[in-house]
Amino acid sequence: MKVLIVGDGARENAIASSLSSKYKVYAFSSYVNPGIKEIVQRTEGEYLVGEIEPAQIRDAISKVNPDMGIIGPEEPLFHGVSDEFRKEGIPVFGASKNNARIEESKVWARSLMWKYGIPGRLRYKAFQSIEEAAEFISRYGGSLAVKPAGQAGGKGVKVIADIQAYLTKEKREAMAKSVNEIGTYYNKEGEPKIIVEEKVDGPEYTLHVLSDGNTLLPLPLAQDYKNAYQDGIGPETGGMGSVSGPMELLPFISKEEYEETFEIIKQTISAIEKETGEKYNGVIAGQMMLTGLWGPTVIEYYSRFGDPEAAALIPRIKDDFGDLVEKTATGHLNKAKVEVDERASLVWAVSPLGYPLNRKMASNHRISVDVKKIREIGCEVFFGSVSLEDGFLVTKGSRALELVCLGDLNESRAKLTKSISWIDADTELIYRTDIGSTMEEQIQKAEVVRYTYTSRRKKGLLGASADWSPNGGLW
Question: What is the reported pTM?
Answer without folding.
Answer: 0.93
